[in-house]
## 1
Amino acid sequence: MINPPDGTKWKVFWKNINGEIWFQKGWKTFTQNYSLQNGCFVVFKYKEGTSELDVLIIGQNGVEIDYDSSCDTSDDGNENLEHSDDESVEILNEWHYPKKAKQLSTLASTRPHKKVKGEIEKNSQRTTSLNKPKETRAREVAYEFISSNPFFTILINPANLAANRLSIPNLKGIIENKEANVNLQIGKRSWNLKLLCCYNKKSERRLSAGWFLFVRESGLQAGDVCVFELINKKDLVFEVHVF
């Protein structure tokens, strides 16, 4: 049993191979839930007289992770307890569906088409005071975004920049409800990430392994507004527009 500081308990099977302990069944689920990847540091402390290990997880940024921001990737409830909801993410717009799609969401936007984004930005500069905070200007421009593809909008805050995961809206009806690999693109650059299912009160999804690298290499800043546009449903490719 592996015990993180968040009070959950994870059943992980192990095997002794040539005097070394190798984690097997259950370990993959644990690592995915806490977004463990190369560069993370895990400290194990054996609880004498038991078959349990207490663990501490240090993220790629050298800081102990926020365990409460993790999510339960198992829906049977046998491997771990329910985690707290992540309140650090501000989702400005839920999924928007294309007007010509077979399934038209009541949230479908009536804003101008993406093709006139340049005109929108130009007009926005005319009507928006340059003295307004970056966050306010970014919101105004992002709210004018629309596309023939499904998309959602998220405001980036300092917690999102330091974390190794990002909560996003539930993808029900858009993407199959299972773990998957996704690709984020900005211009000609691309990043591969893991998409997890979170069986908590919000039934949300999370971009996990690879998020921290995306943040660092893309130059995201607090106050940026990101529009995630699903441009390839088959291969799960998102074009990320940063305002």
## 2
Amino acid sequence: MKSGSDLMSLVGSSRYFLGSEKSNLMEMVSDFDLVLTLVLVDSIKKSQAVKAKRSSTSNSKPPQFSLSTITGYPAPGYPPSNNPSGCATTAGTGFPYAAPPPRPAYYNPRYPYYPRATLFRRLLAILIAFFIICGTIVFIIWLVLRPRFPDFRVDSLSLSNFNLSSSPSSLISAKWDVRFTVRNPNHKLSIFYDHINAYVFYKSESLSDTTLPPFVQGTRNQTTLRASFATASSYVDDWAVEGINGERKSHGTVNFNVRLLSRVRFKASWWRARHRILSVYCGDLTVGISSNGAGGTLVGGARECRVGI
């Protein structure tokens, strides 16, 4: 019986021991949870402090290089920075890049495309090409046809019914008969004369005018043209009357000028030019005045005239 009671007491003591050990184990587990919680809280605080330090460092001025970097010893690394260009960095040096990064795209902007400027250039090029083509065609026609002005010559001039009066006003009465020889020197062009107007002058003073009939000149043709001018008691400036009287008394001659203006057109068998104004000037036609002073004739023979357009 004694052994049974001992056995029961041993079992009870072992139960007590296990219960006490279990309570100790629970206390140790709770202590471990507390320590783990404290460690996590401490690590969170440290990470927040590091982040705050990095943000303050990025907003401040760039770090100064240490003496070890200048003397060639390895540098303690460069703080992280944004590298949008993607250039490779060199570790262990005092510079963030192996080479300077390229300039951003806005340093070399692409200029906008202007369609109006291109259209203007095209129109200008078309106009230039058009004028070049027209000039080439005109030059070729000129080489083929070789147009030349007609030749005008005064063969004779006669003065009649010549009278001057200076009082009470300056008046002139006279009649001029002029004979021209007109020659067309062109081998391939005919000349059409329309609306021929003729004028007689003393220096710049117009004395009389007339109209001549139109005519056509064929190639290598020569035509005689006559013009008759008449005036009766026409008013002229005083200086003109004084000049005519002075020349007649001192030299016995008076110089007159004749001008022709005609609307002409050159024409070939396959080509026709537009109308132009032909100007003919026959100057210094010296007329010897007769002894009675009422008439005179051309002195010095035929005179060539200047022709132009």
